Amino acid sequence: MNPPDVVSLGPARLTAGLDRAGRLDLRQHHAIHGSLAPLGADALLALAEQIKLCGRGGAGFPFAKKLKAVLESAYQRGGETVVVVNATEGEPASWKDKVLLARAPHLILDGAALAAYALRASEIVVGIADDGVAGRSLMRALDERRMPAPTRVVTVPHRFISGEGGALVRGINGEFPIPPGRKTRASDTGVRGAPTLLSNAETYAHLAIGALHGPAAYASLGTEDEPGTVLLTVTGAVRRPLVVETPAGSPFADVLDVCGADAASGVLVGGFHGKWITGAGAAAAEVSRKGFAAVGGVLGAGIVVPLGAGTCAIGETARVLQYLAGQSAGQCGPCRLGLPDVARAMTSLSSGGGGSALDTVRMAAGAVRGRGACSHPDGTSRFAISALETFTEDLSAHVLHEGCGKPVKGVLPIPGSEAQSGRLTVDWTRCDGHGLCAHVVPELIRLDPNGFPAFPDAPVPPWLQPGARKAIAMCPALALRLR
Amino acid sequence: MARAQRTVTRFRTVTRWLGGMLLLAALLSFTPPGERILAGCHHFLDYYAGVFCLVSLSVTVMAGVAATDRLVLLIRHRVLLQAAHRSTALAAVVFLGLHIAIKVVEGHIRILDVLVPFLASYHATVLGLGTVAAYGLALAAWTGVIRGRFAATSRPWLWRVLHSVAYASWPAGIVHGLASGRSPKSWVTAGYVICVILVAVALLVRLSVAWGRRQRTPKAQVTATLPRIGATGTGPVPVQGWGHAAPRQRAVPRQRAATRPAHRPTPGGPMPPPMAPPVSPGVPPMGPPPEPRRPAADRRPGLDRRSGFDSRPGDRQSLDRQSLDRQPLDRQPGFDRQPTFADRQRPPSVRLPRPVEERARRYESVSDDEFWAHLRGEELR
B185 at the A interface (CB within 8 A)? Predict the structure, then answer.
């Protein structure tokens, strides 16, 4: 998929100038925003508090609190500090950071430069994914300008969980980019063990806007609690996928209108760890963390995916759950084995498993909650339960009747789902239900009630392929193979 | 990509370590204690590499045949046995290599004897069995390594056949091991014999289960084969002749009947209803009134119905005695019954089949609905 276009509802802030230029180089950036004046630590802290800046990566943690924690930690330990820009964007349906980095990279770098100067950081690290969207633009931008600290770009393999802060820090430290087992705050021990200010790319861009235009001008848009603008990525059942910048508190219906979205049957907000909201809820919502929470959604990283009328909601959810189960790092047992359970139960529900499948979904989703090093099991469980709560009509059609009768079109974007290679296949005429495969890779293969292997109809993720190969080698009937 | 790079890096690390350790060992072996250790190793391997190879091979074969059991073992036992099967197989191959290398270095055998069996100057038979067993072990190990590829092909049984070489290699190895070197203690011989018997029993159980499963699956059986009728040519049949009656051939001289292309059963083509038109004395025949009777030579001999075959109407037209007589017996319809002239000599009271043309027209007019109605036993409208 190509990066979506950018549209601004109301005055453009982050996306200013993008309606005229493909990419803003440093000269154009200065022409639009003016040049940056450095701020001290206290001034930056005051600015962050005045513009009530919160993290835009999903959690919405107040930036000022984070900055203060880093300052305190650095003061106590007296060592170096590091500024990390998280632009990995592991969510497949999110484009805002990638688009911003590809088209207006200097805003993000301005924000990182502000933070690095205020913290007297010894290094700035920009973490990006290896999807090849933003890397060149970022390198060109770093060629064009000067930064207050040595700046490094670290590319981590694209994976759902590699965008998690702890995973990125591990990646920068040269370890596997998966979440650490023991929760450590990056503000205490981050890159090389130093106090680290780690925040999402859009957050740094907002910080730069606040510094460039002043807190008063920044707060002239948005609501009292959430001043400024919000970046949303709208994909799915839309006439054109867009990255939309809109003032916080503006009607969500306007955003859906400008994309030509078919939102009547439900909208996924907040990404694959987010929630579904009904069409009515979407029509009534306003774009802000509070506004989305009021209709049972979450703003998260600003991901909006309208489902559209012609596709099976339960089937789509099951598909995403299979993807999320495959994206588990595999280091925590409840997640590694529990998420495939959730996905399997939802698939069974969509294919007519009835009331018992519904119970299994609830049970499996409850069994993984809060039982992992990161929020992946929690987010996945929340997503599954939210689908059950939102699509009550479809659910009753699936549980009580033959099904909703709609096909699964694959509206929710899942990377690599079209690939035909790397899929596990069974020659059913050879398979004799020995069951050795399920014993070897329980993350991937389970036995159905008759003792025959069952696994998701999706490419095997790279980290499960050694297990899959082992299962193939173990199969006494030579029935398994990897296509 | 990243995985490949990691593998390459790991491979380099391992190679470096191994190389370093080998170099160190080689250097140390020049020192007096090193020489003593080396001599000890050499002596040990000279005596026991073959023994260890045979023991490993025996364990491999037994673990392999046991791992296929579903009656007693649980899944986790079978996974464990498969792992044991693989590791002991690796050990067997390694010890086999050491055994052969040391025997060649010591001059007990020539390299030619390693490659070609039964040429050795002494103990030719038992040493040759060792060579045969080594080939078998190598083949079994190699097929074990590339097993996954056979899962992707349409011939998984080929893998089983190739891998089963181990069952031949193992007894050869045992005979070689017991007869070529030191004379074994009686309990060793007894142990091997017991192992062979156990494996043979396990193998019989396995084969009988597989055989029973095969027997339970009924195969398609050829109940009858319809030969080509009425023509000697082998060319393709014109399409217009496939599901329909052939055009009228009344006026055509008899001689051409033999050269006319005949019908042949086509799998995809529309088949004529395999039934004879119901003829009851009370029901007047449909369609135009029957033509006056023709000379008997012009009537079809009525072979097909009696011999259980029912060929197409067009075939019947082209059937005549001359062509039948010219054909070899096995090419004739219903070759179990030789055509006779009985039809011609039939007494006039016997009701003769109606003229062929009229039948053909009836066949053409039978629609699907009528055909199925007939099969259901309803009267044809």
Answer: no
Say if CB A74 and CB A195 are below 8 A apart.
yes
For residue B187 the two structure tokens come to: 């309990």
The verdict on B186 and B310 lying in the same domain is no
CA angle A277, A278, A282 (to 5 degrees): 75
Side-chain half-sphere CA neighbours of A165 within 13 A: 25
CATH topology of domain A313-400: de novo design (two linked rop proteins) (1.20.1440)
d(CA A251, CA A10): 12
Instruction: Please check whether residue B64 lies inside any domain of the structure.
Output: yes
User: Could you tell me if B204 and B315 lie in one domain?
Assistant: no
Paired with A426 in beta bridges are A480
CB pairs under 8 A between A and B: 38
Q: Does domain A424-482 have CATH number 3.30.70.20?
A: yes
CATH of A229-306, one of 3.30.70.270, 1.10.10.10, 3.10.20.600, 3.40.50.720: 3.10.20.600
Pair (B306, B159) in one structural domain: no
Closest chain A residue by Cα to residue B150: A478
pLDDT the model gives residue A87 = 92
* CB-based contact, A363 to chain B, within 8 Å: no
Amino acid B376: pLDDT: 67
Burial B327-341 (b: 16+ CB within 10 A, else e): beeeebbbeeeebee
Query: CA dist A398 to A315, A349, A357, Å?
Result: 10, 7, 10
Residue B94 placed within a domain: yes
Q: Decide if B159 touches A, using CB distance below 8 A.
A: yes
**Residue B37 counted as domain residue:** no
Minimum Cα–Cα distance from A478: chain B residue? B151
Closest by Cα among A273, A238, A280, A278 to A255? A238
The ranges of chain A with pLDDT < 50 are: none
Q: How many residues does chain A have?
A: 483
Find chain A residues with C-beta within 8 A of B151's C-beta: 472, 475, 478-481
- For residue B370, tell me if it sits in a domain: yes
Q: Residue A1: its pLDDT value, please?
A: 66
A168-212: pLDDT as tens digits? 999 999 888 888 888 788 888 888 889 999 999 999 999 999 999
Q: In whole angstroms, how far apart are CA B87 and each of A159, A474, B144?
A: 35, 14, 12
pLDDT at residue B128, as a whole number: 92
Domain boundary among B212, B231, B246: B212
pLDDT of B309: 43
DSSP state of A290: H
Select from B156, B178, B212 the last residue of a domain.
Answer: B212
At B234, list the tokens. 């082998």
Alpha-helical segments (H) within A20-144: 26-33, 41-50, 63-77, 96-103, 105-119, 135-144
Count of structural domains within chain B: 2
**What's the rounded Cα separation, in Å, for the pair B180 and B171?**
14
Are A481 and B68 in contact (CB < 8 Å)? no
CB-based contact A477 B152, cutoff 8 Å: no
- Give the bridge partners for A231, in sequence order: A245
* Record: contact A434-B70, CB cut-off 8 A: yes
First-to-final CA distance of chain B: 74
Does the beta-carbon distance from A434 to B82 stay under 8 Å?
A: no
Domain ranges of chain A: 5-218, 229-306, 313-400, 424-482
Q: Please state which CATH number belongs to domain A5-218.
A: 3.40.50.11540
* pLDDT given at position B252: 45
State which residues of chain B have pLDDT below 70. Answer: 1-7, 217-218, 223-368, 370-381
The pLDDT, as a whole number, for residue B291 is 52
